[in-house]
Amino acid sequence: MAGANFARPSALHRGYSLFWLFIIAWGISVANTVFEDRFRIAAGYVFVFFHSAVFLASFVALSELFALPTKASFAQRVHDDHEIRDHLVNVPHADALISPSRDELNANDNEDEEAEAQSPPTETTPLVGGTPAGTRRTTFATTYRRSISAIINKARSNESDEKQPYEYEQLWSANLPSWLWSLQFLILGPFLVILIGQHGLTLVASVSQTGADGSSLLVPYLMTAFFSIFLLLPITPFTHRVTHHVPMALLTVFIATLVYNLAAPPFSESSRYKIYFQQTVDLDTGATKVHYAGLQEYVQRTIAELPSAAGKEIECTSRGSLRSGLTTCSYDGSDVPPNVVKALPDGIPPQNGFSDWLHFNVTRAKGETKARFEIDAKESRSCAIAFDKPISSFTVNGNQPHERFGAIPEAGLTKIKLYRRDWTTPWKVDVQWEADSAANTGIDGRVLCSWDDVNTPGTIPAYDEGLKYSPTWVALTKLTSGLCEGRKAFKA
User: Fold this and answer.
1) Same domain, 372 and 253
2) Cβ 233 vs Cβ 21: under 8 Å
3) Are residues 253 and 305 in the same domain?
4) I need a labelling partner for 196 at 20 to 30 A (CA). Which of 11, 202, 306, 452 fits?
5) How many domains does the chain have?
6) Does 195 map to a domain?
7) Can you tell me where the transmembrane regions are (predicted)?
8) Is residue 150 part of a domain?
9) Domain of 449?
10) What are the residues facing 487 on neighbouring strands?
11) Claim: this prediction has a pTM higher than 0.90
């Protein structure tokens, strides 16, 4: 904007910018309406305020043009200025203003007398002696000096009486009211900048950890770029008048923050890194493992601080991770076994009673690819059934899945998550699958149940240990629906 104003300053700069903003705001409003009507996304009310403010500012810009002079009056003024300029061009050189000497005057008189003697008098000969009519010269000190001074005085008086344009803008812009830009700035600037800035900060802060979730980092960067541009749009009609001190100050801030971000650690106690935790238990064998998922560098630094992981072999892999782009590191958690089911007296190792946490029964329909699961877990309301091959349909307690869950994919399902509202009612799940061949009509898999309660210390000691010994810049959260997950295998 400043470069365009330097190359070709225009009094209509604000008007042009506002019309472009109006087109942009109209396009955004159309997209906002489509999202609201087709996708039921009605969070674009910020753009409604933006469109309304741009409309009011554009209306003020159009109304401002009524203060301009008519074409006829402006053309007459320009014509008068040209006449004054033409007369000023005819002002003689300083050397021509020097009066002739007495010898030059005598020589000129002699030349005039000789010319009169050579040419006989005619009807055009003046009664008073001198040069022929039309060639008689007057002195600069009389008529010519008075006419030039009058023209200059008139031009100076016109310049002092009339308003002047701003710097190098067009002459006709002198009649535009200079205070309207402040009204337009009040309409566009403070409210929209505050509203857009708060929304941008909120959204950017809400997606700052999506990289740790394994999501693409393109979304946070695009969101930051969009709101940075959107934040500057309301003040673009006025940026060409901003002095160089403001961008220099912003450049200084940019350099300082860039150096800090490159030199300082990426995470701190006030801005922590999210690492996923889960402890799994094989309820048949009692084997347990502790899993930490995240970026491998920070996960390994976290595990290195845990006493239960000291001297243990750490296995890290990104294959089969529940969150794409992240690495899951696991180690033997037999030193910190979970105790989520309070069914054993104190002093008895919990691994001796793991098998009692989950009970299920699988009944296979004879000669058919159907089976019924009856599942019950102690002190848990959340379980799941994972199948080694997809199933084609299922019912829970005789009821089909609700339509809000969508239709079953053509490829089938490999996992069913179950939830109940009480602690004792068992699940009864009927499933059906397609046979691979005449000789292989069965189905294998695992029944999984999860526990999340860590209000009492010692319920999941591995998680308590992570909270206590992990670095201060680490925040732990659960990897799946449960901090502790127990599983049993089945064959049907």
Assistant:
1) no
2) yes
3) no
4) 11
5) 2
6) yes
7) 16-35, 42-62, 179-197, 218-239, 245-264
8) no
9) 274-492
10) 282, 448
11) no
